[in-house]
Write a structure and sequence with these properties.
The complex is a heterodimer. Chain A is mainly alpha-helical. Chain A has ten helices and two strands; from the N terminus they run ααααββαααααα. Chain B is α/β, with parallel strands linked by helices. The chains are: A mainly alpha, B alpha/beta.
Amino acid sequence: MNNLVIGQFVPGSGILYKLDPRTKILMTIAYVFLLVFANSWPTYLWSAAFLLMALVLTKQGLGLYWRGIKPILWLILFTVVLQLLFSGGTPVLFAFGPVKVTLPGLINAFYVVVRFVLIVLMSTILTITTPPTAIASAIESLLKPLKVVKVPVSELALMLSIALRFVPLLMGETDKIMKAQKSRGMSLSTGSLIKRAKAVVPLLVPLFVGALQRALDLANAMEVRGFESAEGRTRYRELSYSKADAWAFGAVLVFAFGFIALNFVS
Amino acid sequence: MVIKIEGLDFAYGAGKQSVPVLKNINVTIQKGMITAIIGQTGSGKSTLVQQLNALLKPTKGTVQIGEHVVTNKTKEKELAPIRAEVGMVFQFPESQLFAPTVLEDVMYGPKNFGATDEEAKKAAKTALKRVGFDATLYEQSPFNLSGGQMRRVALAGVLAMNPQTMVFDEPAAGLDPQGQEELLNLLKSLRDEGKTVVLISHQMDQVLALADRVLVLKDGEIAADEPVDQLFSRPQSWFAEQHLDLPETIAFQKQLEEKGFVFDGLCKTVPDLAKAIKKQLDPTKIQTLGSTISENGEANHE
């Protein structure tokens, strides 16, 4: 379970670590948004080049990113197969009875894989270089304009940061309960699918009971210390943009213009 | 069943990020004894006991559990039978309860290891009776019980599997004094039946009262592995080095020894200690002291 890289912060010293988390979130959103419109190999190449630059700037080994991709390989393979089999068009490359693999299908499948990998890697870069708490406060800051239409931004942000804080706790708890039930003979890897699904019950029930109990305890602990509203809380680390952020925004702009131009050309 | 650990190293994680926890452990857990494992938090106690029923596999070295040999390469499938032989009671085991009724929860273990419904029910009832659980509550949801009762159900859940070896990770934590007493009696009765008991504890008085043999872990290495009497005969300075406390009676005895008292052997209980002290006191002063410390060791205010 600890091998999961997606969503995990890995301390480091690259330039991307020094950027304001808001910059990184906006960059990631812009990147993913643009990528959806990619329509030709030059745009994909351009996007891949931008990603590669970001990767280098994190100063983390490529092995880390490979571990980030590995758990979703099956998902990628699945989409590839779907693309291959159900794309239609001509010319047909192979045909096994009603199942046809076509050239457009093959090209599509390839693009889907590239897009998928690029998106996953870009979000992995965000989470690897940004601690969850920083992401939470960045989201709060970015959502601030919504206060005008009475969205409870501070409360949402507090909920988010509490939820994030609970993730490692729940992972520890899962590990502990899993071991306890394994000691009582639980097996998640044998038997029919239904049997396996049922085998999860002894894991899930204690996990939920424990999580709810913790939530109640936390709510009480907050109340006895005088918590009333998430509004106007001060924070230990204030967010601020720096020169590096200006460079980052510049880089994204260059990327976006290049991307749009390449998309038009083809 | 003997559990034999040879040349065991264990680290969490792999590669650059691995954290070594246990180093070169060579230990044999003897059959039919209570073996206590003590050490500071973070010394590797819990990690060590998880090797005993193969929840964790050694990074290096072997763990031989009865006829099963577990190494780094042992497959997950081969580990399941080991769990039937070595029962594990974790810290705060009540967090493992899940079934709609107490009885069903206790039956979970036996059924996993191939018992029929009838057999499982019988085993569950025997186990629940043994931990002193009220028979009128068998059909209750375990989540409606008090903490102490939940602990009993969780204990019964492991007892019902009838393992030859039972491992307890701080089983008394958070129990009231009476609950602790009952638990310790349970451990003793398991040993008296010939079962092997492994106990992690921070309470030295418990260790002194119960254990036959003690393993002391320090920073993932074995600092001592010897009979309980021998261990507590070590000088106080040694315990300070391990960041461990002495049981109160022993600490007192050692203080008296420094003042010139001579004891033959350890006094494990307060009455033993009182008797030994009385023997050595000046007969002219024994009158006054004799009236403050009676034979059973309790203060006497006559």
